[in-house]
Amino acid sequence: MPCGISEKGTEQQKTTYDVNYNFMNNVLEIAKQYDITVCLENMPMRNFSLATPYEILDFVKLINDKHFKICLDTGHIVTFPELSVSKVVRDLGNEIHAFHIHDSFPDRDLHLLPCFGAIDWNDFSQALKDINYTGGLCLETAPPTNYLMIFMKNFVSFLQR
What we know:
The protein has 161 residues and is an alpha/beta fold.
């Protein structure tokens, strides 16, 4: 998760970039020693300069290190109604190293179980296939506990289609 506040379009934006750039480069020095990949997550804040998946992609390309990739948060994408989750997956492709999976609606970040919000999960599943994604999916939700095991079994079956 990037460090910063609601500073998009202000004088503070360059400071935010500089702080994140310096921090990530320091973290990457350690990550390289252990061959670890560090991921930066897209955020649900419209007034933050490192929030959208495309802003995160530009930042990852700026750092330009094989140990620095993207953690794509599906529910956070939904808070930008002009973006399509599946298109973002296809556009970011092999820069994605991890996923935070949850559903939401454009008005706020809800961390709903998949299929309970606005995301087209069939197209998302196809997008994963289109980019040949073989990494992990982290379910980042706040479901009622009595439904969690049933949901997990059904979701795994869905993704295997």
